[in-house]
Amino acid sequence: MKNAVFIYSKEQLSYKFSDTHPFNHKRLILTMELLKNIGALSDEDIIPARMATEEEIRLVHDPSYIEIVKKAGQGLLTPEQAEPYGIGTEDTPIFPNMHEASCLLVGGTLQAVDYVMEGKSRHALNLGGGLHHGFRGRASGFCIYNDSSIAIRYIQEKYQARVLYVDTDAHHGDGVQWTFYDDPNVCTFSIHETGKYLFPGTGNVSERGNGQGYGTSFNFPLEAFTEDESFLMVYEQALREVIEYFKPDVLFTQNGADAHYFDPLTHLNASMKIYREIPKLAHELAHEYCEGRWIAVGGGGYDMWRVVPRAWSMIWLEMTDQPIPTGNLPDEWLNKWQKESPVPLIPTWEDPNPLFEPIPRKAEIEEKNAQMLTKALSIIRSEKNSGL
């Protein structure tokens, strides 16, 4: 059994809205080359992504929606015809062969699933996945097909396993949550910036699941300008309690890298420190509760030069039990990509210190997050106290 596999095909880069769109999968190359430059990733570790079949896409998405996506990608629909389906919008514009490009991202995640669930690898990483905003019949927030939802349904049908989905993207993992909102065998966990001022506006602590799925949806909405200590306090306490409560067979993590202070689309004040700790805890708990079964995907992250490559490298390094580097990034990588980057690259694995001016409301933000955590975990704690 391999320790971990890295899913990647250059064709995954065909998922591209435009040269100016904030979602840019060039970050896959930036991350992969950074790992190769430090000797942490070899060609033997890389497994090519496969194309998901239409039958697999239909595990979650409506057949009529799939036809719309196909027609849009073939230039057979106007933006006005596509817009009711969330396509042809400013967020999710039409681009050529969008169905095929989306199927390749989904297929990469399904490839990761099979490697882990068939016992060929303990862990698997598909950074091209993590498109957590896609709905059954509608695209949303840069996401056409929801690879995480499809993969979880695929795990259920093929492997009959209970799945804990953990989403650390700064945006709420709404598409995955609503797909499994009434399913008692899938637990969704999302720590994100509060939806008061941020897309998609959902992810309140009161969203706990429905029917048989009540008590299997957990949301941890953080105050804007939350810093590392408060983020990690909520993440660690919450994840330890939720995984002990749900006892999954497999851990599936979505690793958006947009909670960082530099990210242009969010308002959290995290640093590279959280991206060292997020996969570390996931790895520990996967071995403690799931016999090591851990599938990880990418997600958001819109400072693709200064943040995403460093943050995503941490997932692979943790998965493969390699030391987390300190000090300078490799000159080879810096010299190559600085020519293209519109901003000065961060030359070190750590962030500059200080990263930002002190936030006067820090204590108040931390207190609000602590109160939110208590409320969000109340269903688990009340069951414990009642001896259930």
Automatic annotation (TrEMBL):
Gene3D superfamilies from the UniProt entry: Histone deacetylase domain
A GO BP annotation: epigenetic regulation of gene expression
One Pfam short name: Hist_deacetyl
UniProt keyword Lipoprotein, yes or no: no
Keywords (A to Z) from UniProt: Acetoin catabolism
Pathways per UniProt: Ketone degradation; acetoin degradation
Domain Histone deacetylase: 21-317
InterPro entries: AcuC, HDACs, His_deacetylse_dom, His_deacetylse_dom_sf, Ureohydrolase_dom_sf
One MF term in the entry's GO annotations: histone deacetylase activity
Ranges that cross the membrane: none
Similarity section: Belongs to the histone deacetylase family.
Protein known as: Acetoin utilization protein AcuC
Native species: Ureibacillus thermophilus
Biological classification of the source: Bacteria, Bacillati, Bacillota, Bacilli, Bacillales
